[in-house]
Amino acid sequence: MKSLSRGLDVLLGVAGLEQGATSTEVAERLGRNRVQVARSLHSLEAAGLLDRDARTRAYGLSWRLRTRAVLAARARLMVEGPRILREVVEATGVSAFLAEVRGDGAVAILEDVPSGLSWVGRSYPLYCDDAGQALLWDCTREELETVFAGTEFIAHGPQAPAGVAEFEARLIAARRRGYSVVDGESQPGVFAVAAPVKDFSGQIVCALHTEGPSERLAPLAERHGGIISEQAERLSALLGWRP
């Protein structure tokens, strides 16, 4: 059991370093004997859980392990997501969704819709979708330019952004706020708040958002935004994200 525990500690130590690490760096991070750590790293590599860079000699999580972890996180999202959505609906009284990026659009993958009108599988342009800002939360200006290269910013709603610069300004404001507010962008009179959901690697895998009429929901933006951001963080934690 001790050897298993040591091995798991070493594996987690490597997982916590995005760029990988040598045996010395892992030992220093864990405060452990370098020889013991080196043995554990060698065993984990032999088991296919770690890969070693031939040039830098640094260890990193193997693609085999990463792939399995991604599949496990996806499975958990599909189990825990509906529970989170139900709690959001109970707290806000409006429809709640989980959406992800597909191509240049955002698509709802899970929903809890009191009205019964399903939006799952429908795609909307990222620049004006209710979840668009949350899905592109971590993007730099350069990355946004790449995402929207060739995109025609059609005004699906009266408040839809006219270009990348306007979208970025709204995204920056959303980051400061802790959640995005989309009012009359995807459709006239439609209001939404959204927040990103991350997995164990820190990658944004989807966005949690509400949707409803602007007239009723705009005055509740701050309250609903707090609920959405809190539940998005909770779902992220369930997927293994640790800030």
Automatic annotation (TrEMBL):
Q: Where is the HTH iclR-type domain?
A: 1-63
SUPFAM superfamilies (UniProt xref)? GAF domain-like, Winged helix' DNA-binding domain
This protein's UniProt keywords: DNA-binding, Transcription, Transcription regulation
Pfam families (UniProt xref): HTH_IclR, IclR_C
Q: Does the keyword Transcription regulation apply?
A: yes
Q: Which positions fall inside the IclR-ED domain?
A: 63-241
* Protein name, as recorded: IclR family transcriptional regulator
